[in-house]
Design a protein that fits this description.
By secondary structure, the protein is mainly alpha-helical. It contains 11 helices and no strands. The protein has one domain: Heme Oxygenase, Chain A.
């Protein structure tokens, strides 16, 4: 196989999203269309917090491996976006407020109380991947941001239209994310395109992006299994009110 041009390589990356990004998952489609119960929305927010809280840890581990000063500087903004520049700021804080608005106690959410075992495993696998895999693959795993801005806009619109227990304020995490994700993916994509110098490198990048899509998909599989029609909630996990 020959080396793909940057345009063809980007097309392959976008094809991964079209086929495998988690907006295609039945749970996500139900969430956006108003078909989820309040308990399912609560479970989604609680479990997603475990992922959100891991993002700055993932990014900090990646920054520690970067020799490129410009990329390190650009990546550092991701920590500010999630952790904030001070107490009470940042994406994690806004996600905690979403969980509180849905009836959870802040300290319980921070302690991952009630989070599904599969969520813990998926998040841990993502952290291990970024820490252990070659830097090119670690950076490439962040490229799901190519697909997220439009999905976020659809999610907010759908949830506001269908659920009376959420509001623009409780969903404020998503206000800045489309712009942040678009900004972040520019530096990550430029790095990947510049440093995937062989067909094997390009294949590794595609595989890393597929892995990240699998992580997000597995989290929704777990939610669907535990809180969907089958309702197999594992011991110790969040139990919605009946």
């Amino acid at each position: 196989m020959s080396l793909l041009s940057p345009e063809a390589f980007l097309a392959r990356l976008r094809a991964v999203g079209a086929a495998r990004y988690h907006d295609r998952h039945p749970f996500h489609q139900r969430l956006h269309s108003g078909a989820c119960s309040k308990g399912e929305v609560q479970a989604w927010a609680l479990n997603r917090y475990a992922y959100q809280a891991a993002i700055p840890r993932k990014d900090a581990s990646l920054i520690a491996r970067l020799d490129d000063v410009a990329l390190r500087r650009a990546w550092r903004q991701r920590l500010v976006d999630h952790d904030g520049a001070a107490d009470g700021e940042g994406g994690i804080e806004r996600w905690l407020r979403l969980c509180e608005s849905l009836g959870f106690e802040r300290q319980d959410v921070i302690a991952y109380k009630g989070v599904l075992p599969a969520t813990r495993f998926a998040v841990g696998a993502y952290l291990d991947f970024v820490r252990a895999r070659p830097l090119l693959e670690a950076v490439a795993s962040s490229l799901t941001e190519l697909f997220s801005p439009q999905v976020i806009k659809a999610r907010v619109a759908g949830m506001l239209a269908h659920y009376d227990f959420v509001s623009e304020d409780s969903l404020s995490y998503f206000t800045a994310r489309p712009e942040q994700a678009s900004r972040d993916v520019e530096s990550a994509l430029a790095y990947v395109i510049a440093n995937a110098r062989t067909p094997a490198d390009q294949d590794a990048v595609i595989a890393a992006l597929e892995f990240k899509c699998d992580v997000l998909w597995a989290m929704l599989d777990a939610l669907d299994h535990a809180y969907g029609e089958t309702g197999h909630v594992p011991p110790g996990a969040f139990e919605p009110a009946r």
